[in-house]
Amino acid sequence: MPFTTQRKVRFQHCDPAGIVFYPRYFEMINSVVEDWFEEVVGHDFNRLHVTSGTGVPTASIETQFHAPSRLGDWLEFRLTPLATGRTSLKLQVTACCGDQRRLTSVSTLVFVDLASGSPLPWPDPMRRHFAMDCQQGLHDA
Amino acid sequence: MPFTTQRKVRFQHCDPAGIVFYPRYFEMINSVVEDWFEEVVGHDFNRLHVTSGTGVPTASIETQFHAPSRLGDWLEFRLTPLATGRTSLKLQVTACCGDQRRLTSVSTLVFVDLASGSPLPWPDPMRRHFAMDCQQGLHDA
Amino acid sequence: MPFTTQRKVRFQHCDPAGIVFYPRYFEMINSVVEDWFEEVVGHDFNRLHVTSGTGVPTASIETQFHAPSRLGDWLEFRLTPLATGRTSLKLQVTACCGDQRRLTSVSTLVFVDLASGSPLPWPDPMRRHFAMDCQQGLHDA
Amino acid sequence: MPFTTQRKVRFQHCDPAGIVFYPRYFEMINSVVEDWFEEVVGHDFNRLHVTSGTGVPTASIETQFHAPSRLGDWLEFRLTPLATGRTSLKLQVTACCGDQRRLTSVSTLVFVDLASGSPLPWPDPMRRHFAMDCQQGLHDA
Q1: C-chain residues within 8 Å CB-CB of B11?
Q2: C87: which of A68, C127, D50, D61 is 20 to 30 A away, CA to CA?
Q3: What's the per-residue H, E or C state across C79-126?
Q4: At what angle do helices D22-36 and C22-36 cross, to 10 degrees?
Q5: C115 interface with B at CB cutoff 8 Å
Q6: Closest to A76 in 3D by CA, of A132, A1, A6, A9
Q7: Taking all residues of chain B, what is their mean pLDDT, rounded to a whole number?
Q8: Residue C11 CB neighbours (<10 A)
Q9: C87 with C119: CB under 8 angstroms?
Q10: How much is the pTM?
Q11: Which residues of D touch B31 (CB under 8 A)?
């Protein structure tokens, strides 16, 4: 089952055209990845970054914005892992308002040592959650 | 000649890992597009949005982050128009710090009527600047 | 009873020092005021701004930051109306993490016509909610 | 002489009412303090935070917003140190657009050790710059 979570379009997200300013979507997408790491992968970002001295920077991200979102809209975000590499992870994040798809994003994260910036192999306990999820992602697709 | 402009990596752009939080790059990219519209295309965003009731929402954007940027880095942004459609415009934006490429982004903007959200054909005075620039972009490539 | 709501300290709120970058607190405070207008006053920000062509800009705000907040902290925000003027409203917003007070903020909002920027008297249905809340605020204090 | 620097009101700063969203002013104010530390005090934020393991969190800030700022406005920010304590510093920051004052802000920063969060006495080379500036501030007032 993909991971889903809700976000409300707030005043702080909207531009003078009255719609979400697209850089704010990336803050929302990052917060969805953050929730998924905490709730599904079992590593919250505080433990990941502060305690463990590791990080998950985004190496690339491709996003289509299908329709604008407006102040007060409730967006359902859905995260599906697509593929796991030795040190990387490919994720799809989508957002819908009711039946309308608002965005589709595919990103690649890399697990790194913060001090050196070098990629690290995913620890097995984390990888296990990606793998299960990827399999489910395929079944769901 | 591509359009270039400088941005400094500030405290507000950096995350607990001490590097630029990637959604902040999209604020910078948007500000570069804003400067290009004002200085090259000859339509500032105030005139475009407020006076004319039009907008240039981003329909899609693909970005690779090649290397992290740190507090105090000076980034040189370079904007090159790649292709003009009847109502759309494809742009490449890159950022370098010295000799090191930090990001490469390709986005598609659409010219729209803000009230209806419908795409509008680019006015000729704007299109002329895109065309010249696209040609130059090809010569430079 | 003051209005309370929770906010989680996310990656996007934190600076290279690993603590909340104070401008992000103001985004949180604004979102708390937004929720209070929707849930208590009965006017959501979309209706207020887009449908009615009015706004509630902040005229002044004083904030003390008592202790830093860190990635992953859950903050309980509490909003108490302090005083109502003909066109203005004085609010206190506090945030605590467990027993520890993190910030205390007092702001003055003004109800304005967006087109002219001129202050407007609060409509009675809105004012009634402020008054009730102010009274409760006094009883609670 | 107070320290002055310019900021342009950009699309990213503006809200659906078409004026600067006040939390974005605090990002601008912080960037002005950042420039002043680098250009006047002689300690850039990278050296201050990353190399030295110190920080200058804001302990309190009071701000009046006198008039709204709009997309495309150029704001002149002016920073004047008001008073220096053993571990703290009181600053005034104002912003004007032409002859019109837009905001007045008074904040107190504290010099801290990032690891422990404890206040530190300002190093003499930094303090000397505050003192000179405060004196000038008094003469200017």
Answers
A1: 15-16, 21
A2: D61
A3: EEEEEECCCEEEEEEEEEECCEEEEEEEEEEECEECCCCCECCCCHHH
A4: 170
A5: no
A6: A6
A7: 91
A8: 23
A9: yes
A10: 0.94
A11: 10-12
* Chains linked to B by 3 or more Cβ pairs within 8 Å: A, C, D
pLDDT at site B51:
82
For residues D33 and D106, is the Cβ–Cβ distance under 8 A?
Answer: no
Integer Cα distance of B40 and B133 in angstroms: 9
In this complex, which of A44, A45, A71 lies closest to C46 when CB atoms are compared? Answer: A71
Amino acid letter, residue D85: G
ipTM value of the model?
A: 0.92
Provide Rg for chain B, Cα atoms: 16
Q: Are C66 and C73 in contact (CB under 8 A)?
A: no
Q: How many helices (H) and strands (E) does chain D have?
A: 3, 7
Per residue in A90-120, pLDDT (tens digit) is 999 999 999 999 999 999 999 999 889 899 9
Residues of chain C with pLDDT under 70: 1, 132-141
What are the tokens at D38?
């680098």
Phi, psi of B114 (to 5 degrees): -65, -40
* DSSP bridge pairs for A141: none
Cβ neighbours of residue C124 under 8 Å, at least 6 residues apart? none
The Cα–Cα gap between C120 and C124 comes to 12
C21 CB neighbours in chain B (<8 A) are: 11-12
Tokens representing D72 are 């495309």
Q: Are D132 and D84 in contact (CB under 8 A)?
A: no
pLDDT in tens, A61-94: 999 999 999 999 999 999 999 999 999 999 999 9
Query: Which of A71, A77, A109, A114 to mutate to probe the C interface, most C CBs <10 Å?
Result: A71
- Tokens 């990845």 sit at which residue? A33
